[in-house]
């Protein structure tokens, strides 16, 4: 019995030591990005949250989202027993989208990533606003390996591929290292990629990746991405650094291959792209002070192998996640891939137009080109609605040609009208849409819910105005260029005259008046005296400040003299006041006058009024109508 107990103890210790040894080996492979080998070991280890998350990572970083989901789901189910990071929630959210579990991914984003989204509504919106739909054809499915990243090179294309089986395998994914190839695209009854040849050994190296080449128009300069031979230690993790290299064509051979001066040994620069006049080089980088893991930058090309300082494209393009693979079309539209903006899973392709040297909010290109997998490296052939895109939608990176077909887009502007001070909804407000020349396009009066919706057209400049009687109209300017937020939501917060001006007040019946010093007239006279003119000048200034304000000028007398005489006198005084305003630049259409005679005394003292009470009843009032 004693011998049996010792045997059990030995077996337990041996098993524990074996698990510890295998765990350490898996961790070492994981830290060195040997994800395929690491996954094999993690799959056999105890199902702890740590082991399961690393197992999921091994699949996630090789785009095996179905397997990653199974591992991450187990980690998520253990969340009551372990603390999960934002990084985990993003990866889980990403694989949920990558496996088309959109309702679950929306829930994770809302609960843990502080980003409420509704993919169903997002899809519906894109169907109305995307400028093109795309027809795709795979042109590399028969050549073997992973293939992606097209550069236009004369009448050929250049792309990166793992098709060279003589290359050593890269531990990350157990596939051959990437090389650059050129091939000719033939368009006939079908589109084929023929005459595929690798670049020379000055470009394609052993145990290094070369990818994403771009060429100057004269074909004599090439920029491309290549990883460094040695990894760097970052937080006890080995990181592979990628740099942009420049090469020159001399005597039909690529030579003078050197990294660009803004590259580094401590951060990556990759995915070069030239603008149409070749004055700027765009690229992706994780250099210090980026907004996320990779941002898109540009540098000015100054000549003599010199460049300006990197410029980050900012929040309309970059997010806290990953933006890569920029491409600049001839019309300066920027196309790029992102997994940080609202999309369908993995990397999606976005576009952004430029306005006043600033890129606008990015627009997802829609479901006809973007999938739940990685879609990236978009290249459009200028003047034609054709081009190339790379995608792993089939399980392997492949290059697709596309033909894009223009769509009928519907833009809308919608919003809510509220009181700027109280926040209360303002029913019956008139909302008017104007074109850039100030012409009225459409108009609507909001209902009890205070909401409005108006139809607009793409690529136009507009303004929208909210107008309510006794309120200052609010005007907002916007355009319908290609932006991520095409369904415009503009809340109109309008301020009442009485909140904006101290001399404007409401009475107990809801009437709104402008309170000024009383205007005095000589007995039985109606001409405007100098003191009255100074008071009315204040009113002139107010009416000029608010050109939509309309008022009624009301004149009142005391009860001395006869009723008919007082009524006629008050009407003359009201008209005299109106004429003074007109003479000082106020449109007659904004003014009405009315004489009330003695019919509305403030002090109803009849024939027994004091001089003070008579003077109170003799007055001019300025009632705001609109």
UniProtKB/TrEMBL annotation:
Coiled coil: none annotated. Residues 509-626 form the OmpA-like domain. Pfam families: CarboxypepD_reg, OmpA, PD40. It is found in: Cell outer membrane. Keywords: Cell outer membrane, Membrane, TPR repeat. The keyword Membrane applies. TPR repeats lie at residues 49-82. Gene3D superfamilies: Carboxypeptidase-like, regulatory domain (2.60.40.1120), OmpA-like domain (3.30.1330.60), Tetratricopeptide repeat domain (1.25.40.10). This is OmpA family protein. It comes from Winogradskyella damuponensis.
